[in-house]
Amino acid sequence: MELEGLRRRFATLTTAHLADACIRAGLPVR
Description:
There is one protein chain. Helix content is 77%, strand content 0%. The chain is built from 1 helix and no strands. The mean pLDDT is 88.
């Protein structure tokens, strides 16, 4: 189990998810 790769992928998914949530909420995304 590659923890580092998993952590990096999770961070990327979380960032994308937060950005998507902000867009849906109508908030400005930087």
